[in-house]
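Researcher: Please translate sequence to C-alpha cells.
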Amino acid sequence: MSKVTPATRALTVAGVAFTVHAYDYDPDAESIGLQAAAALGEDPARVLKTLMTLVDGKPVCVIVPSDQEISMKKLAAAVSGKSAQMMKPPEAERVTGYKVGGISPFGQRKQVAIVIEQSALSHEMVYLNGGQRGLQVRMRPTDVRDVVKAVVADVLA
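Model: Translation complete:
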C-alpha cells in the first residue's frame, strides 16, 4: 500500500502536520467508518467519514463523525440550498478521483463545497480517509477546516 496519495500530497503542499495510519480495510463492513475506528482502536467520534452528496444538483462533500448520520435538510441549509441527497457511488468516484471507501476531502479531482460537522472541531485530533482504502490521516480538525475551506455547521440527524 502506498502512503502517498493525492490527499497526502495536498496536505504536504498545504504545510499542515499529519500522520498516516494504515489499517486492514474490510470491504464487507456494514459501516466503513466504524470499521476503520475499530481497526485503529479509536473512538468513532474522532474517526470522520467523508460523504459525497448533491445539494440542488451540485456536489457537496460532507465530513461527519463515523458514528453519526447526516440530516439532509440541515446540510442543504448549511450551503443555502433547498434539498440534498446522497451521491451515487460511481458519480462520487468520478467527481473525487477516489474509490468509495477511500474518498478523502483532500486532493479531490474537482473542487467542491465542503461542510464539516461542528462537533468534529471539539476534538484535539481526528482521523480522515487518506485517499485510499485502509489509509487514514490523523490531524487537527481546525487544520482540516482550514485546508479545505470548509463551512462549519450542525448537519447531524
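Researcher: Any highlights?
Model: The chain has five helices and eight strands.
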